[in-house]
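Quick start: what a row looks like.
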Amino acid sequence: MLRLILDGTEVDLYENESVNLTLQFADVQNINSSTGSFSQTFRLPATDKNLDFFGPIDRASGVGVKNPKERIPAELVSGTTPILRGFCQIKAIYLQKEKYADIEVVFFAGAVDLRSQLAGKMLTDLNLSSYDHTLNTNNIQNSWLGSLFTGDVRYGLIDKGFNWSFPDSPPWDEDDGLEQGELTPFLRVKAVFDAIMDAAGFTYDSDFFDTTGEGNFDRLYMPVYNGSVSPLSDDDQQATVRVALDADYTSGTLATLDLSDQATGAVDDDDNWNETLHRFVAPYTGLFSVTVVYSYSHAVTGSCNIYIDNNGTELLEVPTPNHIAYNATYNIDIVLESGDYLDLQGQISAPTGTPKIFGNDTVGEGVRTEMYITSSPPYSGQDIDMAANMPEMSQIDFVLGLQRMFNLVLVPDKHKPDHLIVEPFNDYTSTGTAKDWTNKVDFSKDVTLTPTTDLQRQQYRWTYKAGGDFISDQIQKSLERVYGAYRVLDAQNDFATGDQRVETPFGQYMTSLIPGSQFPIHRSLKTNGSKVDKPLPMIAYWHGTSTNYGEWYLYNDSHVTIGPSSLFPSFSNLSTDFASVDDKDLNFGMEAPFFPIEANPANTLYFEYWAQYVTELYSEEARLLKCTIRLSRQDLNDFEFSDRIYIRDSYYRVLKLSYDANVEGVCSVELIKELSDIEVCADVPTGFDDRQNVITFNNSGTDYGSRTCCERYGYEWVQFEDGGVGYQRCKPRQQTNQPT
């Protein structure tokens, strides 16, 4: 007899009422939903025992009331054999004649509850305090060595609106190193996933997530970047000053203007304005934005001069057109070191009339002269708040994004609440136990074998979300698709219609060269040159510190340029800094790169994680089997979705298994035929002949493959001429010019 135990208490069930449980692995019509789930909705009688357990649940609150928003630990047991462990949720209360009649609950386990547990939670809500650290030379260098949080945090370079180029606007030179804050922290993807699971109360096992070394999961990182020019601190360290010239200036002597933080509406919350010397003193090293609002008048033959004074040695002239009267605003961004100062200087030169630089002791009103200074976070020395720097994304979207990139299955352990198995589909299904159910099939009832043609779509697309940077934007406009997308067109199925789209919510980590250099980085720039304000979350491979690009320079904690260094922290969509055919690519489909490589990797996300799955599911040999099978309680207890089920002459895997937990043995089962021997393509690219610049196939240096397989993987099939004899070869996609 079926027993339901809630939070350690056995509750009453209706005697012999059907309790139809459904164990479902995936909807074959929705190939981007490879999740296992167990669920059942049923009613409990309003017995005294049950009412005592649930309390007066028709009320919003009260002593002893079970909260419908909270999970109730649950276990389904048949006799003494556990069937499922998970949680129950109160769904409805049924009353008859103003008295309790039934209490409806839903029993669920694993992935079904994962979505509800993560609902509304963002990456910025994660507890990442164990990764908070000080931005300094030691931590940056340790991140490259793998000794900062055992390699979970690395620092890399992103152009966050700086518009770097050589030689006009280089990120560094031998006298002016790269600011520490111009680097960006990257957090290991597994660390983010672990934080999400921990916060939701889940544990998991994953051989795939535990893989280490070049091209494996531990080399995947996400930029901890939300559009801030420099990483955000756990304190409010932004300096804001707004001061005004409170009286007109008429002197012909070049002198500091008496701007005041005592003017009406002035701002100096952090006391960075020296009222005695009338200057702004930088509280830390960082990028400061200076706006000067100014008004002046002079005679026809006169002039007005206004300057921003930087440390008393450099005068930045504010443009003052030769008008008799003028009102204007001037903006400039400047990097200041801690202790540097800025003031505003002025001078009037006119032989006649009443020339002046206008003052007004009220900020923001009327004819006036004032200076407004704001800053980005510090460039060094601040305590980095990792959670505050996370990009805008929900936690469930992060999990689903990984699922769609790597074709992950998230299967709950039906005997262990809140524990998941997380593996790529092919890895998970290849580890299952072979079980012969031939003699368990009830052939006295219909056994239906059907092709999957009615489930198929005419077109399938795998793609990232369209990015906001200028390269992604221009490529999307020119190609009418997202960079790195892959398309499968089923031209052989006359009945296929519609479009199936598998889109990860991540943006593509687009890598291109700093103009005029060989340094490949992500350039988070809009078409107009400004930074992307809300960059999409992205994932990139960490290559280590590469020596392929040249020498560079960095400021240390004393703001002294150190270097040169030829060890450059390298990230990209490719698994190594000079990739070849046998490396990996985080694009779904092959693209011509914007930086030098040896040859395009064949192992894109589609071919590495999706191609075999799609080939098996939508092959002309694919078959769905529906039948009735008699399984004992122990069979059900031992069942796993990874099991390989042998029936008559073929192996299958279970898609859906339904049964009445109160009735011994009878199960309705839907299975799909295993076709692991079906090839994605007859020829597989495995090598590169650099003498001929051609791709080789099937682990042979003299096998040049076929045109079909060459082009299916994304390479180019090219006609050669050698001594008048024509032959064809498969060539890599060459480096292409990046948009400007």
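That is the whole record. The CA atoms of residues 555 and 561 lie 4 Å apart. Residues 605-618 form the longest helix (14 residues).
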